[in-house]
Write a structure and sequence with these properties.
Elements (H helix, E strand, L loop, with lengths): L33 H14 L2 H14 L3 H10 L11 H15 L10 H14 L4 H10 L7 H13 L3 H10 L8 H10 L3 H7 L4 H13 L7 H5 L15 H15 L7 H21 L5 H12 L3 H12 L4 H11 L8 H12 L25 E4 L2 H11 L5 E8 L11 E8 L2 E6 H4 L7 H14 L4 E4 L2 H11 L6 H4 L3 E3 H7 L18 H10 L19 H23 L8 H9 L11 H8 L14 E2 L4 E4 L4 H9 L3 E4 L7 H10 L2 E4 L3 H6 L7 E3 L6 H11 L2 E2 L17 E5 H10 L17 H4 L26 E4 L2 E3 L12 H4 L6 E5 L5 E2 L4 H8 L1 H4 L20
Parallel strand pairs: 1-4, 2-5, 5-6, 7-12, 8-9, 8-10, 10-11
Antiparallel strand pairs: 2-3, 3-4, 13-16, 14-15, 16-17
Helix pairs in contact: 1-2, 2-4, 3-4, 3-5, 4-6, 6-8, 7-8, 8-9, 8-10, 11-13, 14-15, 14-16, 17-18, 19-21, 25-26, 29-32
GO molecular function: exonuclease activity
InterPro entries: 3'-5'_exonuclease_dom, Exonuclease_MUT-7-like, Mut-7_DEDDy_dom, Mut7-C_RNAse_dom, RNaseH-like_sf, RNaseH_sf
Keywords: Exonuclease, Hydrolase, Nuclease
Length: 878
């Protein structure tokens, strides 16, 4: 049992107390001789009967007339405490200190002759004391307030004898740091890797903390030889040179900078070394991996190098070690680096660049075909930076039952300090990505935006029906909370999540690098997961760009969107083929349920519907994500004109390549606008390799156009409702109509001197089947609602001219196709005109036929919209 343990204190032991409660109120003799008192304790000390020893010691202290003088007499008359081991004298001193703390009694006044005499004696004892006696003597005799001269002399003597630790400890106890030379006291301990003692020495002393950092930083300057310092202290026999390298010292400095909260400018050498390490990293990313854009590279390097001549020289050495003279010359030109020591080949290339006007970046290899391509059109990437933006898209962000991908971006930091605050939060939903400007939305000057945004994030994260996908999501949310106090509880609010990082760790992919394996230039992390699941890695050239910059560059916007949207595509692919990646049964079920395996929440409604609908389940038995007809976008080759008309008839956005147009144009359009490629024949294999997995389909040309359309809709799980039929012009693909009254139509036809024309395309009997499917708008038919798309009436102000009838956008109305007989129909009250091509439509019999033809794909869709309800707002079971 430790004699210093309060449990051994006789004052806490009822067995030692008398009836009055005073444990020392016993019949003991007074005026006891200190040495006899010490001898009386020796037997108990030798038997280590510590409890009884303490009781006897405390009774003896009470019997002493002057405990302080008695302690010094005891130490002066004894030799046992002068060794380095434990001693009875040192134990008695410690116990006396405790006894005095529990028994306040008058002491000599501060500065009185009596106290000064006691302090002088204590200092003499202290000069020969082992470390175990230092603390009690300093406390009992208040030596920190004593005459400093003998104390300082004693500390200097300890230092000269090579007892550096004892000197520092005593100086710390006596609070003599301001009177001692800091470098002399601390350097020997630093050489022995005893930084913790020096940290105690400077604790609560900001000036000494700065001097400690400055000393360590001076040892980090280029070319510094720490053995020069070691030679000043020959008593230091165990110099830890391996712990004194610039790299190790820099780590210590950075740690202390963070601990003390001091300005990094105090440590210019460490900062310079850190900048050099960052330059090596950036040059490797740019020149070797080629995974960093020139713009981002130049911006970061300029910030690191500045006007530091030494760093400029180091950068030039890094650049000239690279063999591509054109790239090196471009870097030198962009950064305005000194050119005196450039190799001749680089200098020649630099001169050529300077002669060129409007020089641009020396291009690296074309990376587009080698990386994951975002299957979302640019107009479906929304940058939200205000309360109005949030309000406009809140319903889409918080749609119950959906699956969302969540990611964060922040500006990379290569300088001293913690992780910078998050700059951008990406939320990807099916077909769209929302980029949330965190600094703007959470700015104190943002009006209602900060509170609205905090509520939105809280609702999104806490809704268990919304499956949140991430890659290391917990770390991202911790960073988000650390960056913005309003979101400090984001991680705790998370419900209904699936961390694909954990899925990645359990995946096994044949003939591909295992998750987490870092090749010299190979992808890693999320990029590796995307490559293993979707076939191509992420393009990370914008990863290290400046995410605090506003406005963000076009490349940054697309990169940020892809970083979040790829989570959705990976999730869908894993859901379709869990066995392909050797996922465990529990994990596969978690994927199908769209949640973490630890969660017990109800299955999201959208996935319930997908799993329950037979037409939406592919061969693997796992649901394919559903897409609305008007959100489904495709590009067809010129051989699929009939399929294009059929899909447009059902509201699908279809672009068709022109006759003779290169098939590669389809891949280009698909990547730029987020479209799916529909093709036939030999081009399929080439086009498939140019877009993301699952974004190209080979169409069976032996099928009729209507059958092809049904196959496409089933393959991509496209939901078609009656409201989608004829929501898009089959001639030009435009989805904007104007409603024209019969009277105005008569006037326009008459003004154009329009002769008698053909009958409605919906009543022709000579058309082939495909043409009949793309005729006029339908009249009311059994089992179908009246065709009434939401559009405004054509007004006089919309016409640029009445003869010929031309809209304000220059589109001429195709009035030649409106027969006089149709104008005389009493039941017909209005017409429709396409604002894109000017084609005129009217009520015919076509709606009933189209509905009947496509009844199979309409069966599981919601019923027709209510009268006057706009397309895209029809009731949904989701």
């Amino acid at each position: 049992m430790d004699p210093g343990d309060p449990a051994c204190d006789p004052a806490s032991d009822p067995a030692t107390r008398d009836p009055t409660g005073d444990p020392t109120a016993q019949s003991v003799p007074t005026g006891q001789d200190p040495l006899l008192f010490l001898q009386s304790l020796q037997t108990l000390w030798s038997t280590r009967e510590l409890r009884q020893l303490r009781e006897e010691a405390w009774r003896g202290f009470a019997a002493l007339d002057d405990p302080l003088t008695s302690l010094l007499d005891m130490l002066d008359g004894s030799q046992g405490w002068r060794g380095r081991g434990s001693s009875l004298e040192a134990w008695v001193a410690c116990e006396l200190k405790r006894w005095l703390q529990t028994r306040p009694r008058p002491r000599p006044a501060q500065g009185s002759p009596g106290l000064k005499q006691l302090q002088a004696r204590a200092v003499r004892v202290l000069a020969e004391s082992p470390p175990s006696l230092v603390e009690p003597l300093v406390s009992i005799f208040q030596l920190q307030d004593a005459d400093r001269s003998p104390l300082l002399a004693h500390i200097h003597r300890l230092h000269q004898e090579g007892r550096f630790k004892e000197a520092v400890v005593l100086g710390t106890k006596l609070q003599l740091q301001p009177d001692l030379d800091f470098e002399t006291m601390s350097a020997p301990l630093l050489l022995q890797d005893k930084v913790h003692l020096v940290e105690r020495y400077v604790d609560s002393l900001p000036d000494l903390q700065q001097r400690l950092l400055a000393l360590l930083d001076s040892w980090c300057q280029p070319g510094f030889d720490v053995t020069v310092v070691a030679r000043r202290y020959p008593q230091v026999t165990s110099v830890r040179l391996e712990r004194l390298s610039p790299r190790e010292l820099s780590r210590q400095v950075l740690r202390l900078l963070e601990r003390y909260g001091l300005d990094p400018a105090l440590c210019p050498n460490v900062v310079t070394q850190q900048h050099l390490a960052a330059l090596r990293y950036l040059c490797h990313k740019r020149l070797v991996e080629r995974s960093l854009s020139q713009e981002s590279w130049a911006e970061h390097v300029q910030g690191l190098v500045g006007q530091n001549q030494w760093l400029q020289e180091q950068l030039l050495q890094l650049l000239t070690a690279h063999n591509d003279a054109a790239v090196v010359a471009r870097c030198v030109l962009d950064l305005s680096l000194p050119t005196e020591q450039l190799p001749a080949t680089v200098a020649t290339e630099l001169s050529r660049l300077r002669l060129q006007e409007g020089t641009t970046e020396v291009p690296f290899e074309d990376r587009e075909d080698d990386h994951y391509q975002l299957p979302v059109a640019r107009e479906d990437i929304h940058f939200l930076a205000s309360w109005e933006d949030l309000a406009r898209h809140q319903e889409e962000l918080l749609q119950p039952g959906q699956v969302v991908g969540v990611d964060l971006e922040w500006r990379p930091s290569f300088c001293v300090g913690g992780r910078p605050r998050a700059s951008l939060m990406q939320v990807a939903v099916e077909g769209r990505v929302f980029l949330l400007d965190l600094p703007e939305l959470l700015s104190p000057a943002g009006g209602p935006a900060p509170r609205a945004f905090s509520r939105l994030v809280s609702r999104l994260l806490s809704d268990p029906s919304v499956t949140k996908l991430g890659y290391g999501m917990a770390g991202d949310l911790r960073s988000l909370g650390a960056s913005y106090p309003a979101l400090a509880h984001a991680e705790k609010q998370l419900r209904g999540s699936l961390d694909l990082l954990q899925v990645h760790k359990q995946m096994r992919v044949v003939d591909m690098p295992a998750p987490g394996v870092d090749g010299a230039r190979g992808p890693r992390g999320l990029s590796l997961l995307v490559q293993q699941v979707l076939g191509k890695p992420l393009d990370k050239t914008q990863q290290l760009s400046n995410w605090d910059r506003r406005p963000l560059g076009e490349g940054q916007l697309v990169y940020a969107a892809a970083d979040a949207y790829c989570l959705l595509e990976v999730y869908w692919a894993l859901c379709r083929e869990p066995a392909r990646f050797h996922l465990s049964g529990d994990l596969a079920r978690s994927l199908r349920l769209g949640r973490s395996g630890r969660s017990r929440m109800q299955e999201p409604p959208r996935l319930q519907k997908a799993l329950a609908s037979p037409r939406q389940v592919p061969a693997e038995g796992v649901a394919t994500p559903e897409v609305r007809a008007r959100a489904f976008r495709v590009v067809c080759d010129s051989m699929l004109q009939g399929l294009a008309r059929s899909l447009r008839c059902l509201g699908v956005d279809v672009l068709v390549l022109g006759a003779g147009e290169d098939h590669r144009r389809a891949a280009e359009v698909a990547r730029q606008e987020g479209r799916v490629i529909l093709t036939s024949g030999l081009p399929y294999q080439k086009l498939r390799a140019q877009v993301a997995a699952g974004r190209c389909l080979s169409v069976d040309c032996s099928l009729r156009a209507r059958q092809q359309a049904k196959a496409v809709l089933r393959h991509f799980n496209v939901r078609v409702t009656p409201a989608d039929i004829f929501s898009r012009c089959q001639a030009c693909n435009c989805d904007q109509y104007l409603k024209v009254s019969k009277d105005m139509m008569k006037q326009l036809v008459w003004l154009g001197s329009h002769p008698e024309g053909p009958s409605s395309t919906g009543d022709k009997t000579t058309q082939n089947e495909d043409e009949r499917e793309t005729g006029s708008a339908p009249e009311e038919a059994p089992g179908c609602g009246t065709y009434d798309p939401p559009c405004r009436w054509l007004e006089e102000a919309d016409l640029r001219s009445r003869a010929p009838a031309t809209l304000g956008n220059g589109t001429r109305l195709q009035l030649a196709g409106v027969p006089a007989g149709v104008l005389r129909r009493r039941a017909l009250r209005h017409f429709y005109c396409c604002t894109g091509c000017g084609k005129v439509f009217w009520e015919g019999s076509h709606l009933g036929r189209v509905t009947a033809h496509f009844q199979e794909v309409l069966e599981s869709a919601p019923s027709s919209r209510e009268p006057g309800q706009a397309p895209g707002q029809a009731g949904s079971s989701d």
